[in-house]
Amino acid sequence: MLTPFGEKPAPTVREMIELEAFWPDRSRRMRVDGELLTHDEVIRNRWGLSETRYRQLLFHALGYRMQECLDVNAEVTYRLLAVAARQKNARATRTVAGLR
Predict the structure, then answer these.
(1) Do 91 and 97 touch, CB atoms closer than 8 A?
(2) Considering only CA atoms, which of 82, 84, 75 is closest in space to residue 20?
(3) pTM for the full model?
(4) What are the phi and psi torsion angles at 36 (to 5°)?
(5) Residue 59 CA: distances (Å) to CA of 2, 18, 20, 97
(6) From CA 31, how far away is CA 24, in angstroms rounded?
(7) Taking Cα atoms as reference points, which of 50, 52, 84, 49 lies closest to residue 66?
C-alpha cells in the first residue's frame, strides 16, 4: 500500500497483535530501542497514530480479521476480546442509566 509522502504506513494486524503481546500492561514504561517509553509513545513513533486511532484499528481488526489475529497470537486475541466485551458492557450500562 502506498502512503503519501511523509506519512508512515498503517500497522498490519500482525504488528498490532505482536505489540500487544510484547506490552501486556499499558500503564508500564518499557525499554524500547534503548529508551523508556509508554505504549502511546511507541505507537506515535512507529506509525504516527494517536492512541485512539490505534485502538480503532485494533478493534476493527479483531472484528473483521479475527482469523488473522488468532493466527498471530490466540492468547492475546482472546484477552483483547475480553477487554472489548467489558467496554461494550460498560457503555451499555451507562446508556441505560442515562449517563451518556
Answers:
(1) no
(2) 75
(3) 0.80
(4) -85, 115
(5) 23, 14, 12, 25
(6) 14
(7) 84
Inter-residue contact 16 to 57 (CB < 8 Å): yes
Determine how many CB atoms are found less than 10 A away from the CB of residue 39: 20
Instruction: Report CA torsion sign: 1, 70, 38, 90.
Output: positive
Cell of 44: 506515535
pLDDT tens for each residue of 41-81: 999 999 999 999 999 999 999 999 999 999 999 999 999 99
Give the residue from 70, 89, 67 showing the smallest Cα distance to 78: 70
Q: 23 with 39: CB under 8 angstroms?
A: yes
